[in-house]
Amino acid sequence: MLELIELFFFAYRNFVSDPDEILQGIGFGRAHHRVLHFVNRHPGMRVTDLLEILRITKQSLGRVLRELVDQGFIDSRAGKSDRRQRLLYLTPKGEALARQFVAIQSRRIARALSECGPDSRELCRRFLVAMIDTEDRGSVEKLIARADQIAADPSRARKA
Amino acid sequence: MLELIELFFFAYRNFVSDPDEILQGIGFGRAHHRVLHFVNRHPGMRVTDLLEILRITKQSLGRVLRELVDQGFIDSRAGKSDRRQRLLYLTPKGEALARQFVAIQSRRIARALSECGPDSRELCRRFLVAMIDTEDRGSVEKLIARADQIAADPSRARKA
DNA sequence: CATTTATGTCAGCCATGTTGACTTTTTTCG
DNA sequence: CGAAAAAAGTCAACATGGCTGACATAAATG
User: Fold this and answer.
1) What kind of architecture, by CATH, is found in domain A12-116?
2) In what helix (H) or strand (E) does residue B30 lie, and over which residues does it extend?
């Protein structure tokens, strides 16, 4: 059991070190990456959505989000049905960056999966799901499913 | 692929949230946990060993290690064959705390494995190993093997 | 219209990681 | 033997990113 504890630690450390290289080049940090990632996956999401997904305070988010907006990676627009809201979209610049992150993260996972064999993907997925708190699994899986739907049919994203 | 990226993020977040509860109660942080964990696994390890495993600077380590020593969780002794070195051991107080961490982390993993079925442990192990940089795998596996040996035969730990 | 909600801002603090520089003691090796 | 190297430690400053509390504005709600 201790072995898996340690392997999880080392694996995750390497997993996040890949995007770090990109982040360092642009003067951003991991918090920026996370924000960019989820806005990429959920165009038109609200600030509140991000707070819920990332489980950070609005002050923490505000700092990072402001930099991403100021530097042209994210576009923040008032909602149509509720003008208090700020709906978040990636700019083309932001999308290009997000693609870079996805690519570099996917590479590591793809390589790991290919080493483990053709049927390992599903078991790994199940393991990671099982590592998530029971009460959160539904919302995480729903979040992922919804993002996949949007990727398949972009008209499903929230409009502004 | 994006699914696994996100699942890994959420899984790890939950994984480290368990020890956080303990840490918060004693006014320590994750860096303390990591130090305690590896000293537990490698009694008699040197400061340099910790720096290498954790890949942090001696200044970072020094701060946390000092607190653990000052508060009686870790015992630091000069080496016999090289008096420059500081060999690190857990005190009984430190061991008790380390046991708590191991227990709470093991619980989550054990539950996840039991959900995935009897043969999933080996595949999960392989996946996590495969997620580690190729050039680090040897040393990580050796580190784990060595710790397991010490756990099986404590006389193999470094003496001070 | 009073209250609530969504977002944003100000401020201060904390944990932990980094860099650079310097110090002391001990070990190494020519 | 002594210069150089090594192990550890310390001081200082800074960065990132998370937190708390308080406050403000605009918009929505009942």
Assistant:
1) Orthogonal Bundle (1.10)
2) helix B30-41
The CATH number assigned to the domain with range B2-156 reads 1.10.10.10
SS3 A127: helix
Q: Are A125 and A141 a contacting pair, CB within 8 Å?
A: no
- Distance (Å) from CA B77 to C1' C22? 24
Average pLDDT, chain A: 95
Closest residue in chain A to residue B133, using alpha carbons only? A14
User: Is there a contact between A124 and B123 if contact means CB atoms under 8 Å apart?
Assistant: yes
Can you read off the two tokens belonging to residue B152? Answer: 């099986």
Cβ atoms of B65 and B74 within 8 Å: the answer is yes
Rounded CA separation B123/B49 (Å): 29
Chain B: residue whose CA lies nearest to A9: B12
User: pLDDT (tens digit, 9 = 90+) per residue, A102-150?
Assistant: 999 999 999 999 999 988 999 999 999 999 999 999 999 999 999 999 9
Please state the domain extents for chain A: 12-116, 118-155
What is the DSSP code string of B80-94? SS-TT-EEEEE-HHH
